[in-house]
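Why this split exists: single-chain examples teach little about how molecules sit against one another. For that reason, every record in the complexes split bundles all components of an assembly together and asks for one structure covering all of them. Below is a record exactly as it appears in the raw files.
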Amino acid sequence: MNSPLKKIVVVGGGVIAWWTVVFLKKNDPKLDITLLHNTVIDAFVETPEPDFSYLLKLIGFSSQDLIKYVDGNFCCAQAYFGWAHDVENYFHSADVSNLDYDITPYSQWLLKLKLAKDDVKADDYFLASAAARVGKITFAENQKILSAGLSFDVDRFIQLLMSCAQALNVNVLNDELEQVRLTATGEIESLLTASNENITGDFFIDVTGSDSKLLGSGLHIEYDSWKQYLPCNRKRYLKSKPRSERLIPFSAVQLGSLGWVKNRPLRAQLVAEFIYHDSALAFVGSQDATLELFSNSKAYAFFPGARKKTWHKNCLALGEAAVTFDNFSHSSLYVAAVSLQRFIEFWPNSTGINLMDGEFNRLMAIEFQAIRDFHCLHYVLAKKADTPFGKLLKEVNLPESLRYRMELFGACGVSPADESTLINTAQWSNLFLGFGFWPKTYSGMLSHVTVAELELWSNKIKTNIKSTIENSPDYTRYMAALISAR
Amino acid sequence: MLSASIKKITIVGGGTAGWMTAAALARFFPKEHYQIQLVESDAIGTVGVGEATVPHIRHFNNMLGIDEQEFIQATQATYKLGIKFENWGAIGDAYIHPFGSHGYELGGIAFHHYWIKLQQENRVLPFDQFSMAVVAAQAGKFSYPSSDLSSPLSSFTYAFHINASAYARYLRQYAEAKGIVRIEGKINQVALNNEGEVDSLTLESGQKIDGDFFIDCSGFSGLLIERALKTGYENWSQWLLCDRAVAVPSESAGTLKLYTRSIARDCGWQWQIPLQNRTGNGYVYSSQLLSEDAAYQTLLSNLNGAPLAEPNFLRFTPGRRLQSWNKNCVSIGLASGFLEPLESTSIYLIQVAILKLLEFFPQTTHSPVKQNEFNRQIKNEYEKIRDFIVLHYHLNRRTDSELWKHCAHMELPVELERKKQLFYTSGHVEKYQHGLFMEPSWLAVYLGQGNAPVHYDERVDSVDVGSLTHHLAGMAKQLGQYTETMPAINLDFYNSPSSALGVYQKASMSLYGGGRR
């Protein structure tokens, strides 16, 4: 490679730091990579998006490896309990199959059907979630798992990546970062450690978490807070044994009176996560069951927001050093892994570095805004009960981009024609409808379609799903077979 | 009148835009709910835009349930795999912009990065020789694309050259059979109501025509959207200098081409569109640089066959209507904006406006949210195409005339400048989701007529040049082999009712086909 980047220094200690060094080295074995390993971040569980399996493959792992070695468990849907007004629960499917009627999208024809029929439910039309509800798993034609995320134990995944990094000859230095030294033109020249080592490099990757010791403190790239849109700022974890021998192929989020709880089942453990605002602590000693349950867990602070740029000069930030959001949907590992892959596409060449970072930052800003809006939409649409958290939710502001999206979807069930992001139109529609936010009108293309025709179409999809599920294996047994297979 | 419900729809103008709109509304809007009428005058000629099309027209026909073979017979259509640009980068240069992609990804890195590297070492064929559509078109061969995504035959799609007036006539029959009422007459007057909306039209005969919602397909004049509603127009002449065209059909000569020809000339460019029974020709030029007569003479001296009719002189201002949808009126076609037919986008722009109108069709006259998004999306479509067309003019090394020298040095639209900078400093094409022309098209033009970029994805450097050269040569050779298996297309081919092609596939809204990226 003629690339000006020969030596890369990664700073951090969590799963994203380990992922980064392995991914870079796998991508180009000739790179000289040093990991300055300092901040040890407690790790619990990650549930990357279905596409993660593609990235995993690039470093030589399969989903099956993660299932076997790091307690991996498929996540075919996310169940929402207690969020919407008139829907008891809603399963957001990981599978976004094409349900267009002729050329009209699902959100439109379903509305026409709903206006005529009372019993229309938004989540009845997705195979993966319908199967998950009954403890089954479905397949695409080629026998691959149909679009499923994967939850796994992060600590154990780090161990796997560490041995990988060792085999790939990544230099690992256990030391504290003392000082970021800059050149006259404002680039990072070297990093000085506590034991007085001076680490030089051509490019630096900041995975130091919300401290952002390189891009933030070192290069003074500011952080935009999203606290007016995403009101939570604390989380606690609780690990427990599974309640039953039966495996659960979906995650669940429950709205509570002081915050919300996300339950992610692995195969051998259940990880619960309580997400709330620190003002909830005023209720310690009250009878709140959730607070009670998590009373002995450590509280971690987090600050929703994004850095104004995530690539500046010769430094890239990943993970919480770049962007932080409460994890309804997107795993921070997944977002970091996608960022890293994109960075490699834009790998700085001899002269293009400034233009390349401009394009990279432009794309990532679009991505981050979409993720922020998608998460904010959960809070905006959530039932605002007369609880401390309900009151907090009433204070949530609406970003202009989300306000426009809601107005448009509310009017006609259409998403704005914006740039493509990790969240596609179908996912937006599913969330809107799942939370009971139905548009007022449907497309003119449905004018000539009768309700009877749509009922036939709807029944056809449901019947297909039903028969597919009947012929699909029980999830628990399927996983047992998968693990015992070579 | 605020928020009156819409029952009666009046379309003004019966050219390509008017009858495409009428046919689509007839297809989707039941007679019981909507009364739809179209006003046109036999005395007013139509421009007959869009003789050359892009593949999306197949989707429109599919949507209406029109059989492709019947369409080909009715419009004297020929198959089209791309556009050949001659003399654009420099005099003597030529490349085809195909309806398909070039090469395929290797090791997760886009094909063109490898091509740029080898091109710098003079070790590779021209970029368009890695497109299945180009290799087939040059050999005069055609087959339907394959649905096997691993085959090079899946890497392209196709459009048609058509007689646009015949298409309009065909759609008129379709629409009238489905209950659209055609009213003959010239419009004398347009009356507005108190809210400033279009209330009614009065014909020369004195007949008054009303409607709840109006669709302006009156062409350049913008009878409702501009003359009555005074919507305003954004003028793009600073980037697109051509403002005149002269068109004339000629006798067919030589073999039927499977592509449109666009030949750059001193003061503009000439089109050649092969139909079954004639060739469509035109010269698009700048009135500041050339007189009407000189333009016509230039066109006449560059025809392949004898002219079949008197010339049709057209004047236009490149640009777009500030709001395609204003009050209770939507403009479609030339009433909504004008971009020269360099990339055959006229019918596409009509089609996309119709699709979005159907999607956002208002239940009541006051629907500001739908109107706003409709206008935003149409603006985006026009601007993206504008930038792509401007790129053709800008990327030239010609010094033989004022037009080309000016275009090579002009200040570009901001978004286009950013795209160009990114490409020339990194080999990356800026990605976007909404718009007609995507990466394969931008690459076709950048690499077909521009200077080759210095930079590419440097991961490519880790591949051995010798084996890469060998691999790419193999890729090009394979396309030649596939071409051998395809039927040759000549006039007899269109005349014989049983086609050797088999059954055509369902169309999609894609310019490139499905696979092999």
